[in-house]
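Format notes (please read before filing issues)

Several people have asked whether sequences and structure tokens are stored in separate files. They are not. Every record keeps both together, in the order shown below: the sequence lines, then the token lines. Line labels are part of the format and must not be stripped during preprocessing.
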Amino acid sequence: MTSVPTIDLNNGSKIPQLGFGVFQIPPEDTKAATLEALEVGYRHIDTAQMYQNEAGVGEALAASDLARDDIFVTSKLNNGFHAHDDALIAIDGTLESLGTDHVDLFLIHWPMPGIDIDFVETWKALEEAYRDGRARAIGVSNFQSNHLHRLIDETDIVPAVNQIEVHPYLAQDELREVCRELGIAVEAWSPIAQGAVLDDPALGGVASEVDRSPAQVALRWHIQRGDIVFPKSVTRSRIEENFALFDFELDDGQMAVISALDKGMRTGPNPDEFNMIP
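Then the structure lines:
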């Protein structure tokens, strides 16, 4: 079976660089899709309270023959639980849904800059969960540079990861460099821009050169840049295709062609403006 490389997080944990995302997978389909991914070889599952499918991931963990410590599971705090005590209760809810006594990585899903409860208060709750073992690593999602610097200045623990929208149309080089300087690993959500990059002629040209699909080429670009990625699908053939990234490489010229596609295009909300509570 293919061995997926790992990324060393700043607290000593190791995270598989390729994972399986369950965003937008209906709750009733999540168990089957997650089991398919585990059978293919994925050992990193990314879910969130907001996705409403943590329980399906938990059912797959229970049904799998794999040991719990062989699977790296990430979840994220829903936007309505940023108050300190609410965050701790929500973390316990995630553990109950997953059927486990710990989550490998727990993130603040959005900074929510427009609400009264500051994300610094929220982060201090995550620090408690980290210290007592409910979360083996903690991090953030959709945090901009100013959010990261403020968090580090006012709290004790540097986030292990920042999960942000990254794809060939939104390379995020400046924010990725800030994360690198701070020792924060970058996870890329929407790694193929919700499919928007797949018909790009330049990406298609590189795909033809290496005899791979455009999706595989985009994901390989992420891997070679050092991003952590977790594409999602409910189709076995696509789950397998997205996993087949480690028996080919892109040369410097091909990497440059893909990087040149950056046009600052978001497929999701702007973190400086997004304050929705589901």
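For reference, the curators noted about this record: Residues 84-98 form the longest helix (15 residues). The beta strands are 6-8, 14-16, 20-21, 44-46, 72-77, 105-108, 138-141, 161-165, 185-189, 228-229.
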